[in-house]
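Please, structure for the following, as tokens.
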Amino acid sequence: MPSRPVASASASASAEAPAPPASASAAAPIETGIPEAITSAAPAPALPAGEPELSRFQAALRELARGGRKAHVRILWLGDSHGQADFWTGALRDVLQKRFGKAGPGFVHVGWKQYRHDGVKLTTDDKWTIRPKVPAASSRTGDGVFGLGGVVTTGAAGSGRARVNVTDEGLSSRLSWDVCYRLRSSDDAFEVSLGTGPKTTIRATATEPPGELRHLTLVSEGRETLQVVPTRGNPEICGVVIETDPADRPGVVLDTLGINGARFGTPLAWDEASFGAEVARRKPSLVVLEYGTNEAGDVAVDPVKYTQRLVRLVERIRRFAPDTDCLALAPTDRADTRARTPLVRDAIREGARQAGCSFWDTYAVMGGEGSIRAWAAESPARAAGDGVHLTQRGYRELGTSLATHVLRGLPP
């Protein structure tokens, strides 16, 4: 459908303030309803007990189901390479959107080649670079201002182009495109456009000087392609959030924020004020913390440290989104850390208890020790041969299984 871009810019936060292989097909859709009684005379089955730590998130979903909610229900998924692939997250998104309403792909990186997202095609021309150079670092890099996704990108002025094309045919209504950017100096500038619509030039002004994270909102009538072209200097792009208009029909959005190699310490190394402002802007109903696989690779595992970091991260998030629920996931099985993975799992479970988060035991769901090798030996395989990652089939199976957990206790 043709687009009619409408642009507006606003400041978000002051910068001065302190992929795994894809193979095989997806698993069958999960059944989240309650079985019907065998006979009309049989008593109606009781609903399974829900997760008290997810009560506010589930209440928001009930509002959607009743048609009484006027805003999207948003999920932020912070994690490592398992999440960056958007197969695990994509399956969970798919289950929730099919039941409660499809509200768009959510957060998408722009100009980052080591990233994929369901329902979106990403392309670049010429060279694009990322900052920080080691996105998974657990120590502060520079000023620590990297937007919501922990990574900013920069293209070559004049020749670097980055495109984000929504390919999900299920999205045909009006879409908003919330582009996050930062001009580091008064010499920085870039152009942004939707499809064949007009180009909007972004540069520093007297009222919007360089240094801050800012946002530009564009609107299209249906699916479209966003194009970003740096024209001068080194402007930084910190992603785009693509959503439907909740006034038309609110639904579920899941933001994939996984980073290859990330740990609990990764988001803790980002500037708290700027990251927190981006979290507050999203107004999440649920934050998923999917770490632990890389912690299990530590030569000397320190369960107390992992527990403390999980609690600190939840505390930080809730300073900016006090009403959000949280869900901590255990690490997947890993072939070379058979003794250490259960220790990390237990540390995450304890951290979830202390922080008031729901906990889902990914390790046990897979089958515990040795399960990743067993999954890799299957045909078609559910795990990759590296002993660390899963195949698309394995990830999507975990996603549909996780959906059962977050929907537990809700009526069909």
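Residues 303-320 form the longest helix (18 residues). The first strand starts at residue 8 and ends at 13.
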